[in-house]
Amino acid sequence: MTNEPRRGTMSSKAGRSAFAFLCVALLSGCSENIVRPPEPEPLPAGRPPLASLGKSMISVPISVDLSAMLHHANDEGVIPKKFDHWGAHIKSPKGMDFKYYAERDDFAINPSGTAYATSSEGERSLRDWWKGMTATGSSVAVSAGVRYKAEVHPSVHTAGLPVHCGEGSEWPRRATLDGSVAMGIAPNYNVSASVIGVAMNTIDQCLIRPADLDPTQEVRQRVADSVRVGLTRAVAPINAMTVKSQVEQVWNALRTPIKLDQDMWLQLNTDMVGQSGVLKGGPVVEGEIQLVANPVVVRGSEPAAVAATLPPLGMQAVAPGFRVAAEVQLDYASLSQTLASRLKGKQLQVKGDVVKITNAAISGHGGNQVVLRIDFTGDAYGHVYMIGRPGMNVLTQTVFIGDLRWDPATEQLLPKVASWLYNVTFRELVADQAVFGVTSETDRIKSLLAAALNRPLSPTVSMHGTVASVQGVNVSADANALHVQLMSEGTLRATVGGGN
Question: Which of 160, 203, 214, 261 is least enclosed, having the fewest CB within 10 Å?
Answer without folding.
Answer: 160
